[in-house]
Amino acid sequence: xxxxxxxxxxxxxxxxxxxxxxxxxxxxxxxxxxxxxxxxxxxxxxxxxxxxxxxxxxxxxxxxxxxxxxxxxxxxxxxxxxxxxxxxxxxxxxxxxxxxxxxxxxxxxxxxxxxxxxxxxxxxxxxxxxxxxxxxxxxxxxx
Length: 143
Description:
By secondary structure, this protein is an alpha+beta fold. It has one domain (15-140): Alpha-Beta Complex (endopeptidase fold (from Nostoc punctiforme)), CATH 3.90.1720.10. The chain has helices at residues 15-21, 40-49, 59-62, 118-123, 133-140, and strands spanning 33-34, 37-38, 67-68, 79-82, 91-97, 100-105, 109-114, 124-129. The longest helix has 10 residues, at 40-49. The two termini are 21 Å apart. Mean pLDDT is 90; it is low at 1-11.
């Protein structure tokens, strides 16, 4: 089994880690919302639904939910958004700590990437916090 997060990560012992780890390697499928295949917003919607949070279906709509968060203030569970097509928000992932985020990549399926990768640095748009403190403590904080 592919381990989603490195030992010692602030996120490695959380319940959300288990939810994400269960779908690492799931193939990319445009419009996909199930473990048969995800697109980026289908993946984020799936993970958050497992925590009792309903997200909008598209990355653009998700980018308007919750509270805006500075990149320097990201915590595990925050949504991170990218402009991958030159037309505004077009990709979303879930920040998992240690400068990493989980997402459904069109080329790799569900995977973990570094925010510091030049591709993502150049395309980063914003981040949003959609979890309240209670949900964060239940799912994204260390067990």
